[in-house]
Design brief:
Strand content: 35-45%
InterPro entries: Acyl_CoA_acyltransferase (IPR016181), GNAT_dom (IPR000182), N-acetyltransferase (IPR051531)
Largest sheet: 7 strands, mixed
Distance between the termini: 21 Å
CATH architecture: 3-Layer(aba) Sandwich
Number of helices: 5
Organism: Acidilutibacter cellobiosedens
Keywords: Transferase
Helix content: 25-40%
Number of domains: 1
Pfam family, one: Acetyltransf_3
Strand order of the largest sheet: 1-2-3-4-5-7-6
GO molecular function: acyltransferase activity, transferring groups other than amino-acyl groups
Amino acid sequence: MDIILKRRTRDHVITFWEKTQDEEIRRLFPFSIESLEKALILFKESLREDALSYGKVIYFKGKYIGDIWCYNIDESDEKSAMISVVIFEKELWGKGIATEAANTFLKEIFDKFDIEKIGAFTYSNNYGSIGLLKKVGFSEIETFVEDGIESKYFEIQGID
């Protein structure tokens, strides 16, 4: 598969924001950022040496199609981070692109940071994300309701 993970830029953040305003994407992914301005501030913070987040953009066949990042990186106490993967080009869902990108990114994260586990949240109705997490080695830990939406939490303890 022709998948490359690249460094995020300000232009990627803007494109990501615009693409993820789609109603179907909003129903499937638990976004917490409410404005483009906030997204740009968080991106700028992610460039600092002591940043608690780290991300890449996903290119497929030379086209920017989504983001993958980890956040809440804690190398001292919990030795953990969280991961998020969003392919915003809906015609590419279910093609294994996110799986390959996640496998590559997980290896990078466990090598780059002093962490032992990575967690992930997804809505219970996002069967694509649930399948992705299970395919790359995450285990379902719990199901819960937040803001009236049933969600699931997954974890992975290192990778082989």
